[in-house]
Amino acid sequence: MNGPILFLLLLGIIGLIAKNTSLMFAAGFLLLLKFTGLSVKVFPYLASKGINLGVTIITIAVLVPIASGAIGFKELSEAVKSPYAWIALASGIAVALIAKNGLTLLSTDPQITVALAFGTILAVALFRGVAVGPLIGAGIAYIFMQIFSVIK
Asked: Cβ neighbours of residue 125 under 8 Å, at least 6 residues apart?
């Protein structure tokens, strides 16, 4: 058995132990691609477009309440009257700006990508985290790297 398959099996087992469906599904999906031989064509696509695809899927999920009519202009106008809504608005802006730098970092620095991916796997497997971390994590890493380069 080769290293990548063993590693994916280990991650699947960790997902099973941690009861993390996302990690189990991801490891199983990638193993299926490896065993069927589709990995040769699909892996390069996922490597180059996977993060954008994931962001698109998350965006679709966030927009479903608007599309279904559960959230409309009335709810929006009520929400902006709340101080918590303004905090959420500012947080959304901050996260999007942080993630923008993270996307740049992930595309230009392979060593950081490996460390962030491993950190995300650990958080998902051990702390029941959600795997949206690589992009935000890369953005946060970018900020700290900039601070470090100024201090250094």
From this structure: 11, 14, 15, 18, 20, 23
pTM attached to this predicted model = 0.66
CA distance 91 to 97: 10
Compute how many other C-beta atoms are within 10 angstroms of the C-beta atom of residue 116.
Answer: 22
3-state secondary structure 38-60: CHHHHHHHHHHHHHHHHHHHHHH
DSSP 8-state assignment for residue 142: H
What letter represents residue 61's amino acid? A
Q: For residue 6, count CB atoms less than 10 angstroms from its CB and return exposed for 0-12, middle for 13-18, buried for 19 or more.
A: exposed
- pLDDT for residue 130 is more than 80: no
